[in-house]
Design a protein that fits this description.
Elements (H helix, E strand, L loop, with lengths): L14 H12 L5 H14 L4 H8 L3 H14 L18 H13 L10 H8 L3 H10 L18 H13 L5 E17 L18 E14 L5 E6 L4 H14 L5 E6 L8 H9 L3 E5 L10 H13 L7 H17 L10 H24 L1
Helix pairs in contact: 1-2, 2-3, 2-4, 3-4, 6-7, 8-13
Length: about 375
Amino acid sequence: MAQMGRPKAELVLSTEERLTLERLANRRKSAQAMAMRARIVLTCAKGGTNRDIAAALGVGQAMVGKWRRRFVEYRLDGLFDDPRPGAPRTITDDQVEAVVVKTLEEKPKDATHWSTRSMAKEVGMSQTTIRRIWHAFALQPHRAESFKLSTDPLFIEKVRDVVGLYLDPPERAVVLCVDEKSQIQALNRFQPILPMMPATPERRSNDYVRHGTTSLFAALDMASGKVIGSLRQHHRATEFKKFLVQIDTEVPAELQVHLILDNYATHKTPEIRRWLLRHPRFHLHFTPTSGSWLNMVERFFGELTMKKIKRGAHTSVKALEKDIRDWIAHWNENPRPYVWVKTADQILASLARYCERVSAAAIHASEA
């Protein structure tokens, strides 16, 4: 029976072409579009109709016909896309480099940083061009971040101690991240909060009235993610001791207790030391000064602030404390433990690289 449809161009591969196509089809770093084109050509070389090949590869019949014709006419070069139409490039590499260098090494006379408008005026380009160059090189002159490096003489030892507890906690022990979130304000807006509507976000007045403050003591269990919480009017050593008593009550007696906490003075008073001597199962591990990022309970405080406190409205401290207790209770119903992944060596190496960058920037600034 004669073959139906338009006659197909004969497709025969040389050994070199077949090897190249197989590499394109199987190499993990090949673009998926290019890999599919290579598979189409390889399958066509085995024979069969475009319909059968399209069904076998899960593509359209027109797509098979297109790349068969392109390969027969142009061979391997036919698998690449044709140049896209459009105006020729008007910005040279030297002009791009000049914008990048000026952004990094100079400042405008009337401001602390460049804007797209001021840079465009300075170099004689459009704002859109400046925006595209900045985006391509990940430059954001409008942004600035703060940093603080710890000067703790025992910084390395403390990092290894705390991270070691996270990655390899001792047996028959519980690791608790402990801290106080002090001076949580019960704030209420002077005017009613306007609810969210389509195309309009929730709105609240800038002015508010304070109804007092409270302080939250929290201990985050690194294994389970559960939180032991206590609300107090003050955050002195007396209140911290009461919180230790609460932890002692709630943690099973057969477990050792390792507390990760900061260098706040209330954690080291004679009264606290005497209590710890009477409770030898408690072991304190201090984070370095200016090293609160090592204490995972800060992550919990961040979620509490963003999800409950920041946009809350409370007419009394009692109402605020009720909301916090309810939120902690809801958290403990489905706790989500945080997972620490970096080793102490990785952290110290990263900080060393950052210090080198900071030192180089300081030297460059002094020489400018």
